[in-house]
Amino acid sequence: MAARFGPLRAVPRRPGDVTLSPMNDPFRVHQPKILPSILSADFSRLREDCENVLSAGGDFLHIDVMDGHFVPNISFAAPVFKWLRKHFDCFFDVHLMIDEPVRYAPDMVKAGANNVTFHAEAPEVKHDVATAAKTIAKLGCSVGITIKPGTPVEAVYPALEFVDLVLIMSVEPGFGGQKFMPEMLEKARVLKPKLRPNQRLEIDGGINADTIGEARQAGIDWFVVGSALFDAPDRVGAVKAMRKHL
User: Fold this and answer.
1) Sheet holding 33-36, edge to edge
2) Residue 176's closest CA among 212, 117, 220, 225?
3) Above pLDDT 70, what percent of the chain?
4) pTM higher than 0.70, yes or no?
5) Which of 49, 59, 99, 204 is catalytic?
6) How many domains does the chain have?
7) Domain presence at residue 176
8) Is residue 181 part of a domain?
9) Domain range for residue 132?
10) For 129-159, how does the pLDDT look when each residue is reduced to its tens digit (9 = 90+)?
């Protein structure tokens, strides 16, 4: 049974909206990227923390949106990174851990999301992930698909033609600071040969200087880093230590 999505809402550009420059578009280059995950930031000084990790060598921001239903945690929604967008012109990689990603994707793009990644297991889309990907792409953003560790990699196959990236979860989604699951790299090894040169493979969960090299060897292009960067006493040194393995 195909999923039934509501009518797509237009996302008009407004005066003052940030336009992503070509030099900030990570799909235009093939170098590996380190993505600071703001879920690990100090929310009492969010802007300063984000500025600091980018200055330390992070490439662009990864933003986790959680609804308390799809995952047992609530993070923040579009208004938070809409505020951040006023201060940053970097790429915003938004990971939706929510039941209804298609319903809320327009809000995310309007708030400043450049990429919107949805879960293949989300109730709204699980019967037709291809249509979900095509619907979100109409908003003008790039689109990613991801799966939980326990979901077979084949779940993303129907959407592969229509997405710009595939995100491998190497921890259970919903909380930061978890231990890396190296067995998830087999999904990367299976997926990498199936991707076009302009598609990217991303990983999220437990990435640090000890795990990033193995992930890179498995074919990962983009590396989401949370506590290993935000909790590091020397963030510049933390980024350098990870880049040595890339």
Assistant:
1) 33-36, 222-225, 200-204, 165-169, 142-147, 115-119, 92-97, 61-66
2) 225
3) 89
4) yes
5) 204
6) 1
7) yes
8) yes
9) 30-243
10) 999 999 999 999 999 999 999 999 999 999 9
42 catalytic per annotation: no
74-96 mean pLDDT = 92
Instruction: Say how far apart CA 90 and CA 67 lie, in whole Å.
Output: 25
Buried b (16+ CB within 10 A) or exposed e, 58-69: bbbbbbbbbbee
- Provide mean pLDDT across the span 179-202: 97
CA atoms of 11 and 26, how far apart (whole Å): 22
User: What's 35's domain CATH number?
Assistant: 3.20.20.70
Instruction: Say whether pLDDT at 8 is over 60.
Output: no
What phi-psi label fits residue 219: left (phi over 0), alpha (psi between -120 and 50 degrees) or beta?
left
230 within a domain of the structure (yes/no): yes
Residue type at 56 in one-letter notation: A
Note the pLDDT tens digit of each residue in 205-233: 999 999 999 999 999 999 999 999 999 99
One of 49, 64, 67, 99 is an active-site residue; which one? Answer: 64
Tell me if 64 is assigned to some domain.
yes
Active-site residue, 64 included: yes
Give ∠ CA 6-157-212 in degrees, rounded to 5.
Answer: 110
